[in-house]
UniProtKB/TrEMBL annotation:
PROSITE patterns documented for this protein: HTH_GNTR
Keyword Lyase set for record: no
A matching Pfam family: FCD
CDD domains in alphabetical order: WHTH_GntR (cd07377)
Keywords, sorted A to Z: DNA-binding, Transcription, Transcription regulation
Organism of provenance: Halomonas huangheensis
DNA-binding recorded as keyword: yes
HTH gntR-type domain sequence ranges: 11-81
One GO MF term attached to the UniProt entry: DNA binding
Lineage start: Bacteria, Pseudomonadati, Pseudomonadota, Gammaproteobacteria, Oceanospirillales
Descriptive protein name: HTH gntR-type domain-containing protein
């Protein structure tokens, strides 16, 4: 029996208006700080009620495209969105699809190398200072669970620093998004436990060699090092996931740390 495809949800008027405003912003070449027409003008333009216009503007605000200010001189002011809302929505989309580290590294092995090569000659002294400070912070981590968790985050931030210098915004976004995915996996799977000094030392070593190669503007060396670094990191991540595979998503010791006053704990106790 042939199944009839379910009809697409009909867009609300507020959604159509917000889409049209976005097209208008792009067509007019508007920039951060520019103002959208006021509510009354938008109501007249679209022939709709104030509530519909406000809903459309709220959609744009949630998407990070505008800031709504009240009072004299207020209104809808264009705002350059950062990557976090988009990254968060994509991570939510993938959350229920059983994503693992191997799948993330299938892309990361390719994109990190491309991104690293693209920033050769683009790193400023300030960028190098940030990368050196990051490495130093990683090497000063103390041996306890919370600090190892912080170390994993710092190691990913090293790669975010490089991505921010990438001239290709799509490539930069994808690399930072994959780092966000790994950060989430680290938290959910507690992949900073147990301590793995070999993983730590390998990351520090690759990061220091990469900084030297970036300073020398040696594209072949940068490409080689980043490719090796990604293969090595994937191996460690796979080993960590295998080691944690038998554990529950939320271990008993983690539950014990949840405040008894929290809604989650109260629900679990019912």
């Amino acid at each position: 029996m042939v199944q009839t495809p379910s009809p697409r949800r009909r867009q609300k008027l507020a959604e159509l208006i917000s889409d049209d405003i976005k097209r208008w912003i792009a067509t007019e070449g508007m920039v951060e700080g520019d103002r959208l027409p006021n509510e009354r003008t938008l109501m007249e333009l679209y022939g709709c009620a104030k509530g519909t216009v406000r809903e459309a503007l709220k959609i744009l605000e949630v998407e990070g495209l505008i800031t709504l200010k009240t009072g004299p001189g207020g209104g809808a002011i264009l705002h350059t969105p950062n990557m976090e809302p988009a990254s968060r929505m994509l991570r939510n989309f993938l959350h229920f699809r059983s994503l693992d580290g191997q799948q993330v590294y299938q892309l990361r092995r390719l994109l990190e190398v491309e991104m690293a090569v693209s920033v050769i000659g683009r790193l400023s002294e300030e960028d190098f200072a940030t990368l050196e400070a990051n490495i130093h912070s990683c090497e000063c981590i103390q041996p306890n669970d919370e600090d190892h968790r912080r170390q994993r985050f710092l190691e990913l931030e090293f790669h975010n620093c490089l991505a921010r210098a990438c001239p290709n915004p799509l490539l930069a976004f994808m690399c930072r998004f994959l780092n966000d995915m790994l950060r989430d996996l680290v938290v959910v799977k507690k992949a900073y436990i147990p301590e793995r000094k070999q993983f730590d030392e390998a990351n520090h070593n690759y990061h220091r060699q990469l900084v030297d190669a970036f300073r020398a503007e040696d594209s072949e060396r940068v490409s080689q090092l980043m490719a090796e670094h990604m293969r090595d990191a994937e191996g460690h991540m796979s080993a960590l996931e295998a080691e944690m595979a038998g554990q529950m998503l939320i271990a008993p010791d983690t539950l014990a740390q949840v405040s008894e006053d929290s809604p989650l704990m109260q629900m679990l106790q019912r």
